[in-house]
Amino acid sequence: MQASRLREFQRRPRRGSLERPLDGRLVRAASLVVVLPLLVLAFTTARTDPLPAPALPASFDGAAALSLTSQLAARFPSRVPGSGTDDEAAQWVASTLSLYGLAPHTATWNQHVPDLGDVSLTNVSVVIPGSSPGVIVVEAHRDNSGVGAGANDNATGTATLIELARAYATVGTTSARPRPLHTIVFLSSDAGAYGGFGAAHFVARSAYRHELRAAIVLDALGGLRPPRIEIAGDGAHDPSAALVRTAVARVVEQTGAAPSLPGVLRQLVDLGLPFAYGDQAPFLGASIPALRLTTADDTGRSDASDNLAALDPRRLTQLGAASQNLLGSLDSGLELAQGAGAKLVLGSRFVHGWALELVLLVSLIPFLVGVGDMLARCWRLGVPLAPGFRALRRRLGYWLSLASIVWFGGLTGVLPTGGGRPLPPDGHSATTWPLVPIVFGLAAALAAWFVARRRLVPARELDAASQVGGYATALAGLGALALVVAVVHALALVFVLPSLYTWLWLPRRFSRRWLRDVLFGCGLAGAVAVLVSMGGRFHLGARTPLYLTELVSVGYVPWASALLALGWVAVASQVGATTAGRYGPYAGGASPPPRGAIRETVRRTVVAVQSRRR
Length: 614
Fold this sequence. Notes:
Blueprint lengths: L1 H8 L14 H7 L4 H10 L1 E2 L14 H14 L8 H16 L5 E9 L3 E12 L3 E10 L9 H16 L15 E8 L7 H9 L6 E8 L8 E3 L10 H15 L8 H9 L7 H6 L4 E5 L18 H21 L9 E4 L2 E4 H10 L1 H18 L4 H26 L16 H4 L3 H19 L10 H25 L4 H11 L9 H11 L1 H14 L5 H10 L5 H21 L17 H17 L1
Parallel strand pairs: 4-5, 4-6, 6-8
Antiparallel strand pairs: 1-10, 2-3, 3-5, 7-8, 9-10
């Protein structure tokens, strides 16, 4: 008799009951649809060979480049965009190019730059006409933050740019000007250290903007760190695989070691969150294949020690020669290196962005099938769902109120606004905490929470039906959010998928409570990946949330993306409250619920006005 009772006590809950509202067998069967896109992804993963090297060896003069670097850094150590020394540096670049018989063109415009205000920026360019259609851009920003001498970042890039242009000069030689196959534009841009405003202006306003086919960005080529290649661009665009492989091959030929490329995790974050730092980003955002060759990180930590003594002349010569050979390879095989789009670069192989999007989109089907079946079962079991949806709406309203606080902060000038370019991680806005506005913002957020929580706190001990209702409504909201993300930016689903397939199993009964906590924590992996990637890349630490908020306020990250992120946070808060046993059906589950503060105030005002009229 005792053994019979023990078997009855340990019997597995019946499928479809409150203990097992999710049909795991149905979800597993629906997961088979993901096999086909995974096969497509596997079979479309391709390998690309680099373009052939130029027939003639590189003639790059490293000593001359080092001399130009020394002149620029010594005469104009502070080249803050819009300053007088920045204008003098632009004139120096133009006059130096003129000495070689080249005809520089100067473009000046007014631009609002966060931390600097409204300033006048200047681009200096030289055009070498070619015999075939298509334009190749070799670009280097000329400015710096003004903290150090800017010898490496980016006097070395500017000097290399001048030396590469000098190869097409007529002064000092009896031979005719070399004529490239394609038109080449050598561009010395402004405000590159503040988000790439000069490069963005060239892409948007240049007379060659419809003929641009590729871009090589030279940035800090004489540092002591190993060289690396940056390939992230605005709008989740990456350069063609042929361009990346060619750049790697040309660097290996000169240095004997392959330059580092972004890891898979960082590439996924950059594709899902369309963020890129550096002058290659505006070109890629316009679907122009581009990459940035550099030896410095993007944190700005080395600005104070960026002087002539910290340069490596040998590295400058090597990367200058590699840049010249890369330009020669592109000029002879430009048609093979065209095309920019989302992709994952895995060494010598790459994964097409459309194949990755297909996998992410089809991965929604099992989740949506499971949640739809769960809602139908809850309806048949009489589980109250309306209070859960009202609670989710209340939480969403609270987080949207925080978005209004951020918007008000930008409106009042507390947060930087305008420009539409990423902020420098070492800039004033990203490194300075506005303590008084933050205190007032936190006080407003806390007051809004006290107003919202009156309808969300549990009025009694949570029963099984209410708990399942809280989970089911939150998962339904998560599914709706995932569909919107799929329409707006499908690659951002990489951040949502961990929460889809870990939180989906939370409504089931677990013999050990910590398993539910582990599942909830695993669902936060997407958000944690963004914070870790951004914070680690720029060494932001605790300033990472502030930096992400400022990316929204300046208009670089669209408000639509920010609102979708807040929608996910609202769902996560309801799932977390239910997991912790702190979920309460909206207004105690009353139907209809009592009026809130706003509705009650409006009702009393209307009643008072009507009474006065009577």
